[in-house]
Amino acid sequence: MIIVGLTGWGDHDSLYEGKVAPRDKLKEYSSHFPVVEVDASFYAVQPVKNAVRWVEDTPDNFQFIVKAYQGMTGHQRGEIPFNDKNEMFDAYKESLKPYLEADKHGMTLFQFPPWFDCRRENVEYLRWCREQMGDIECALEFRNQTWFDGEMREKTLDFMKKDNWIHSICDEPQAGIGSIPTVLASTHTEKVLVRFHGRNVHGWNKKGNAQDWREVRYLYRYNQQELMEWSEHLKELDASTKQVYALFNNNSGGDAADNAKQMLDILNIEYAGLNPRQLDLF
Fold first, then answer.
1. Which of 58, 135, 193, 235 lies at a CB distance of 3.0 to 4.6 Å from 30, suitable for a disulfide?
2. What is the CA radius of gyration of the chain?
3. Does residue 108 form part of some domain?
């Protein structure tokens, strides 16, 4: 099964007809797609009440891919707002309970930064993270080429299989050490994740403040040929894995929702069990 969605639900204006209040956007979003990536959890461990509300706002078969908190992946600079890493992981796992209890937790996504390279201490940290998460399904995404350079490619994939990591496959610019190639391999029998970051080579490594960097990095619109090629890749992954999650993250110019809808058309997919569509009659 190929499950297409977007990263976040707040910024996709083309989905929302008329005026939709921010707190109602997830309800409307889930009338279009059956999965979403929760980005807020990267910036702060979310209060349980937030997940409770989001679970209640979505239909029974809806899935959340929840990003790991930045302190868990080494993005956080300086002190973390916890006494130690064990407390941080415990707080994060507590925040997942509403998704897990409702059977709406697709996976937790550990996306590591460009400076997280392939070396022994980082491999050991990945093992420790996986142990901390227990039975919770987790995906792993790198942003450093050394994990897939030469003979390390197969070693990395084997490591992910042994430690039960779901592979987060990327479509992104090939822009030096801080980007990874598309490695079309699933490391988990049940699930694989594909994230479409766009192909803005010149914007990928742009320097500047965080807001400007994000706005430029993901500024890209996939053309029909690129989507057609990827539709075949998704079908190949679907043949070996029960659930293929495909998330479009290229929304700096508002293109993610349109590209996701195009992909659904190419694959001839219509999802059942979505929220009813809200119609703005006036």
1. 58
2. 18
3. yes
- Pseudo-torsion of CA 98, 59, 251, 228, nearest 10°? 120
**Number of domains into which the chain is organized:** 1
Give the whole-angstrom CA distance, residue 110 versus residue 45.
14
pTM of the model: 0.92
Phi-psi label, residue 54: left if phi above 0, alpha if psi -120 to 50, beta otherwise: alpha
CA distance 93 to 134: 10
List, for residues 213-234, the tens digit of each pLDDT value.
566 777 789 999 999 999 999 9
**φ, ψ dihedrals at 15, nearest 5°:** -80, -25
Domain contains 167: yes
User: What pLDDT digit, counting tens, does each position of 60-72 carry?
Assistant: 999 999 999 999 9
* pLDDT (tens digit per residue) in 100-146: 999 999 999 999 999 999 999 999 999 999 999 999 999 999 999 99
CATH code of the domain in which 132 resides = 3.20.20.410
